Amino acid sequence: MLFNSYEFLLLFLPITFFVYFYLNSKKQITLSKIFLISASLFFYSWWNVIYLPLILGSMFFNFYVGQFLGKKNSKKMLTFGIVGNVALLGYFKYTDFFIENFNWALNKDVELFHLALPLAISYFTFQQIAFLVDSYRGETKEYNFLNYALFITFFPQLLMGPIMHHKEIIPQFQTKWKSFIKWENVALGLFIFAIGLSKKTLIGDPLTDYAQYAFDNAQKLSMVEAWYASVSYVLSYYFDLSGYADMAIGIGKMFNINIPKNFNSPYKARNFADYWKRWHITLSRFLSDYVYKSLGGNKSLVWVMYLNIMITFFVSGFWHGAGWNFVVWGLLNGIFVVMAHMMKKANLQMNYYLAWFLMFFGLIITRILFVANDFGDALYVTTTLFDISNLRFNDLFYVDLYLQSFYIVLALFLALGCKNSMEISENFKPNFKYIFYTIILLTASLFTFSDAKEFLYFQF
Amino acid sequence: MKKKYKLYIVLSIVFTFILFILGIGVRYIIDPVGINSKFDLGLYKDVALGYRTQKFVELNEVKPNTIMLGGSRVHYLSPQDIQKYTNDKVYNLGLNYSTLEEQYYFLKYSLEHFPIKNVIIGLNLYTFSEVLEDNNSDFDKDLFESGFTPFKQFKHYLEIPLFKYLKYVYYNTFTEPFYKDGAITHYHQQIVLNTQEDRRWENSIEGYREKYTDYLEWGETNLEYFKKMVKLCEEYQVNLKVFTTAIHTSQLSLLEEVDKMDVYYKWKEEIAKITPYWDFMYPNSVTKNQKYYVDSSHLKQEYGYLYFAKLFEDKKTNTPKDFGVLVTKDNVNGYLKSLKKNKN
């Protein structure tokens, strides 16, 4: 179910909210949790129920492996647990990728599986691997299955994160006062939700439309069209993903659950190291804690640290998608981050605006790799950005000169010149100004649902 | 303090809903697709924004005796070219990017609800593919069961892409649809006919190259729908006429280029096993000549009569002799042999 759908907003959310708190008000705490888990699984199964057993099986498997590890820190059991998770993810996400490469390398013709990727598998796999590792390290408490299941399935974060850590979520579900309606949290949650919804539907979606149409015809783009398409995609990804994260945080707030911040004005960064501290923060945190630090982090020689960064970004690239373009995307990001560290180590300072420009240009290049259908398209669009011979101002079939320019300018202004949604929400007060903002944002967004786009990360 | 938060929540939600309902009202008045036709604001009604829904509503108003079924190639044809043979109410149910499943449900509904005497089906090879590209249509099977209920009407006005519509209406320079009484819509008119001819051809060739490469694979699923359609016509004892649409030969060359001629022959053979049909989809003096076409896929409406003169065996109307072959299960093998031979 999409957050930007009528069934979610008019039915699912209000019903789930009131039933959950009603059961809690009647001191039916266990029942309320069972209800919230069931509602979340219903939310998960809305499109396709066939993957419901998969998430249930994965949850049971990890909970009991985690319990075992909590009692006895067996490395074999930890390996078994991690391999189980990676195998599940690998089977659904990477089988065809490996077959394609096998066929290519050995000139074979093994048929592809064409498996549909179960929703959210990349997210809940990561969360559960973290749980197993922490259980092995003795850092998990005695969680009961209901709280664990809520940690995995809680619907606001289930499909696209933020990637929550058991330590920050499960204790919240065990806190008594959080079981009762707090109107101030509901109000703040509604306001954050309205911001997120409008970011996604009013800015992210139109920009995605323009960019996608252009990238579907990548090889026909002229220089101007290539710039418009690439910048549109860079901006649409931010508004789409951070919009979703805001909505998740807002809904979490309504349920008295603090979901961690996932974006912190990433396009205001001036180098890639800073950018990755602001973009998809919970993913960076996971990769830092469970990949980078496991490799030794920055405790060894500086060159080893750089190697660790590259390996971490390789994993990140591969996690984002089963294709060589994602791997190259990850490595390119790794190189940019390493370069930022090198400059910092050498105490080199760059002009503020030049640094920002180079960072933003790096984003454009990496985003092209991420969204292009293949390397050929990515190369064509990238080279066309500088191909003066392909510069023309008439017959721009893949640009909407007025509207798209408006969206780009507006999105740049909001991303670079304004406070982000979390900063705005810090000043929230239940007065007429904020009522006005909320009404306008919600109403305008409600009329965009007919063109509802699936969130860009759904298939990750 | 708690009161203030409650007030914030209540006012935000209530006023959002009030504005939302008002917005629906505005959409009802503008009525972009022309479903209710209660208010005349002088704006063009663009049925392309809700083809299937609009067709369903109009079908119920017209209550035809003869229906034309097919995809956009049928959509482009004029019902008047048939009316002169059937002398009854003819309705064009050609749906852009239609699937045989959609056609089946429209046919079933029509047969169950109206005094249908004639059914004319124009076939497109691609729709028989096992791996169809999603057509993103507004097709809703439930319409045929429960009708265009108030809830569905509400949903329709809500989902209509109003701004897209207003954008095209605003720039519209046509005062009348290019093809009167035909099914070509204003939106399509703007997008397709207003584009320069060479670009239109290029687009249609490119589009079909992708379609034939990625989505044309032989399978039984859609053939089954066609079998069911023929069976339905037999059950209701209606006069069924089937023909293959006359695509330009550049499309046939595409099929060769992407190595899908086997699907093309197999399709012709399987159709003949189900019902006799008029085949126009092969090199002949019409399909070789660009002047008859809007683009590589669509015959111009003014030449649609050529199909029907053959289908209704109209000797008085002049048609090219090599245009159209009646294929039956008895002659199909010989016919396909000759097609293959002529190709070589």
Q: Brief description of this entry?
A:
The complex is a heterodimer of chains A (460) and B (344). By secondary structure, chain A is mostly helical.
List the helices and strands and how they pair.
The complex is a heterodimer of chains A (460) and B (344).
Chain A: H1 6-25, H2 29-45, H3 52-71, H4 75-106, H5 121-136, H6 145-153, H7 155-158, H8 166-173, H9 183-216, H10 223-254, H11 272-278, H12 281-292, H13 302-320, H14 324-345, H15 352-371, H16 375-384, H17 401-417, H18 421-426, H19 432-446
Helix pairs in contact in A: 1-2, 2-6, 3-4, 3-5, 4-5, 6-8, 9-10, 9-17, 9-19, 10-15, 10-17, 11-14, 12-13, 13-14, 14-15, 15-16
Chain B: H1 2-30, H2 51-62, E1 66-70, H3 72-75, H4 80-86, E2 90-94, H5 100-113, E3 118-123, H6 142-146, H7 150-159, H8 162-171, H9 186-193, H10 197-215, H11 221-235, E4 239-244, H12 249-257, H13 261-274, E5 277-279, H14 305-311, E6 325-327, H15 332-343
Parallel strand pairs in B: 1-2, 1-3, 3-4
Antiparallel strand pairs in B: 5-6
Helix pairs in contact in B: 5-11, 10-12
Describe it:
The complex is a heterodimer of chains A (460) and B (344). Chain A is mostly helical and 460 residues long. Chain A is built from 19 helices and no strands. Chain B is of the alpha/beta class and 344 residues long. Chain B has 15 helices and 6 strands. In chain B, helix 5 packs parallel to helix 11 and helix 10 runs parallel beside helix 12. At the A-B interface, helix 9 and helix 19 of A face helix 1 of B.
Q: Name the pair of protein chains with the most residues at their interface, and give those residue counts.
A: A-B, 20 and 20 residues
Calculate the mean pLDDT score of chain A and round it.
91
Distinct helical segment count of chain B: 15
Low-pLDDT stretches of chain B: none
Strand order of the largest sheet of chain B: 2-1-3-4
